[in-house]
């Protein structure tokens, strides 16, 4: 499943350039670009991601899985759906970037879903570069009293984000690394000199 997911990412979500032409959220320029939504919203991609992550969390005794909207949402949905099919249901939740300022909760609602203070959860993200969005999700989940037991990224760009998150005391697991995608890219593009 993992090998097929790498193929799908290479086919639908990855771009590479010899020159750093891709502008990242941080403003930095990069040779690599991952648009994971092309895979996380794809039927086969959801199937693969849901199964791979479910295998990583099935024995973790957790109530929920989620992360910062929008990157984490389809991943959490895929895992939740898979968990139900496998007979070990796990709730999906969404961490809002900005609080919902209407409804019944004064001060705004940051977490959407059926998780509450004290619940054990996994934080997911599609891509970790600097770790900023993952750290934001962790901070907001902690503010709501959730206990974070694991952090999982679909792709680790291997640019320091994992180390930054782990320095805060959270073990980060990634399904795929940038190096694994580049290895397949080079195999398919043998003329590449790097």
Helices, strands, pairings?
Layout: H1 2-12, E1 14-16, E2 22-23, E3 29-30, E4 32-34, H2 37-40, H3 43-57, E5 64-68, H4 73-85, E6 91-100, E7 109-113, E8 120-128, H5 132-143, E9 147-156, H6 161-167, E10 172-177, H7 178-188
Parallel strand pairs: 5-6, 5-8, 8-9, 9-10
Antiparallel strand pairs: 1-4, 2-3, 6-7
Report what the structure shows.
The chain is of the alpha/beta class and 194 residues long. It has one domain: Rossmann fold (3-Layer(aba) Sandwich). The chain has seven helices and ten strands. It has helices at 2-12, 37-40, 43-57, 73-85, 132-143, 161-167, 178-188, and strands at 14-16, 22-23, 29-30, 32-34, 64-68, 91-100, 109-113, 120-128, 147-156, 172-177. A six-stranded mixed sheet has the order 7-6-5-8-9-10, sandwiched between helices. α1 (2-12) packs across α7. The protein is globular. The model has no long low-confidence stretch (mean pLDDT 93).
């Amino acid at each position: 499943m993992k090998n097929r997911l790498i193929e799908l990412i290479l086919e639908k979500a990855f771009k590479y350039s010899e020159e750093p032409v891709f502008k990242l959220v941080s403003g930095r320029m990069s040779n690599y670009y991952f648009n994971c939504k092309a895979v996380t919203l794809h039927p086969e991609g959801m199937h693969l991601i849901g199964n791979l992550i479910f295998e990583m969390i099935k024995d973790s005794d957790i109530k929920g899985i989620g992360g910062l909207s929008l990157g984490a949402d389809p991943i959490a949905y895929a895992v939740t759906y898979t968990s139900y099919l496998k007979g070990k249901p796990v709730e999906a939740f969404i961490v809002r970037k900005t609080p919902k300022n209407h409804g019944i909760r004064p001060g705004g609602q940051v977490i959407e879903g059926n998780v509450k203070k004290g619940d054990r959860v996994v934080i997911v993200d599609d891509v970790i570069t600097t770790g900023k969005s993952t750290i934001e999700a962790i901070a907001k989940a902690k503010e709501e009293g959730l206990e974070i037991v694991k952090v999982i990224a679909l792709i680790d760009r291997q640019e320091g984000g994992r180390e930054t998150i782990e320095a805060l005391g959270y073990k980060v697991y990634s399904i795929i690394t940038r190096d694994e995608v580049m290895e397949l890219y080079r195999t398919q593009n043998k003329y590449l000199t790097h």
